[in-house]
Amino acid sequence: MAGITCGIVGLPNVGKSTLFNALTRARAKTENYPFCTIDPNVGVVHVSEPRLEVLNQVEQRPNAVPPIIEFVDIAGLVAGASKGEGRGNQFLEHIHNADLIVHVVRAFEDPNVAHVRGTCDPLEDISVVNLELLLADLQHAEKAVQRYERLARAHDREGMHAVEVLRRILAHLGDSRPLRTLDLTPEDLAALPDCRFLTRKPVLYVANVGEDALPDLETSATGRIRELAASEGNAALPICARIEAEIAELGPEDGAAFVEELGLHEDALRRLIRECYRQLGLITFFTVGDQEVRGWTIPRGAAAPAAGGVIHGDFQEHFIRVEVIHFADFERLASRHAVREHGLLKLEGKEYVVQDGDILFFRVGH
Fold first, then answer.
1. What mean pLDDT do residues 199-227 have?
2. C-alpha angle 20/63/318, rounded to 5°?
3. What SS3 class is residue 213?
């Protein structure tokens, strides 16, 4: 994947669009009424990558292109979304296309900002959204098992395997447990190529705290959200979306000064992207072309041909070999020539597993 997509979800009026504005500087609408966001706002953000700057200080190319991450601000979900309530059907379809669910939870009291349920209870808000995702998966699995049972009755081996997997999925969902907690093998997943389950997606909970929580951002609500996230195998991150939106309006120097004045260590964008990468198990590799140096995003553990495929399909299909420079060697020796002279430029084949920070030069056939 050349970039990743994070779907920003949550109940109406919890701060999704405010956070989106802070992250993307796109100034999406943030009016104080439910379903302000109907069609999803999409923003592509360049990932801050200091190693790319170091690389181009030596290579001196006209352009330095960092990895990207796409944020999608999806309309607020309400109870009954799995049955089409509110903007439910569109909401759920947009989540299907996300690699990671960024679930924004309101963790502040403000009488001037309406709450769709009337009272602010972060854990109850989370349960509403999670239940709708689970119910949507349950409906999806029920329809899928009906399709595959027709194949199974004809003694189709693949259909029989699919039915067996779907019955396990239905039992797990029936116990109100998300599918990310069900042990499914790659073979199990391959048996269901047309099934996209929402509760298999990793989740990053963003606890949207009030300004009174600054500078440490830790509140009793944040602690409860962290505990819930940990119990699910997910992560939680406290952010004051309103302050981050104000920081986003400033230039880089003024923004950095404001962050320091508030007692924060860094802005939300860096923290959020770092956590997104960690949740998805992503790493970055680099390439050097005639006109640019560039960072690319791949899953940890990807082999060299798959990394090449992120750049262009031909790089994977016609892969021959790849020349590899580890970033630490490049930074220490400060030139490709010196790396080569020290015998540290490695020639690798199809089995090579790309490491974070690798500088890769692909060789392909025709």
1. 86
2. 95
3. helix
